């Protein structure tokens, strides 16, 4: 159902922290023009943790309306509260999102049975395609392979974004669940081997700054043109690295600021990219021709 380069879209902000709606609209148009396969609105890269509830809903609606059915929109609706996850996922369905991205509940550290019951309740109560999101480095809990396999039998669970960076786990997911759900990478640096292992694509941070390049690399890999995919991936490698010099989305928001798409706004407790890392990031953007003269 979902494939290729899916951007985990940032939420542009003014210097006072308010959502910059004009910049957000321009970024959506940029992705439509550059060949991005789908957009995630208000995922963790979109600073879901610091948007308030009304802003979260407004950004989802705005992106859905701006895209206007031209590519799929996936709404980030996960929370560490099952009730809030249900409310946000219902809202996503009501405003016309094509799917919901549900991060594993963070901080709570639920058991595997708790994770299963959390995702099962949302899957059964809200009839919209749903993508599980496993990112233990952020959430403090791992969705075990056995739990994913149980969830893959639910009709509304259509994919998983796995951000462990573990190719062995990706292969195991494809073997156990690949016939029932799409397996997507959550790590830009391993997208090529991930796809060659049977994955369908990536929910990408790098695609914010290099959408055409990420889309081309994924398409080459999915079509079996490994040589072309590898060449494109090699070109992208310095940018993948630079975009994680500090916690995401700090570097990618600064990259888009350098590219002229938005101001430097970001919400505390995150702060703009440190001076010490700006040169390396700028050099990575310049190598790909992403900075104007």
Brief summary of the model shown:
The chain has about 290 residues and is of the alpha/beta class. It has a single domain, classed as TIM Barrel, CATH 3.20.20. It is about 45% helix and about 15% strand.
Give an overview of the whole structure.
The chain is α/β, with parallel strands linked by helices. It has a single domain, classed as Aldolase class I (TIM Barrel, Alpha-Beta Barrel), CATH 3.20.20.70. The chain has twelve helices and eight strands. It has an eight-stranded parallel barrel, surrounded by four helices. Helix 3 packs parallel to helix 4. The longest helix is centred in the last third of the chain and has 17 residues.
- CATH third-level topology: TIM Barrel
CATH architecture: Alpha-Beta Barrel
Q: What is the share of helical residues?
A: 40-55%
Note the total helix count.
Answer: 12
Features:
293 residues, alpha/beta, TIM Barrel, 12 helices, 8 strands, globular
Question: Which helices and strands appear, and what pairs or packs with what?
Answer:
Elements: E1 4-8, H1 21-34, E2 38-41, H2 53-67, E3 73-76, H3 82-95, E4 99-103, H4 112-125, E5 130-134, H5 136-139, H6 145-151, E6 157-162, H7 167-177, E7 182-185, H8 191-196, E8 201-204, H9 211-222, H10 226-242, H11 250-258, H12 275-287
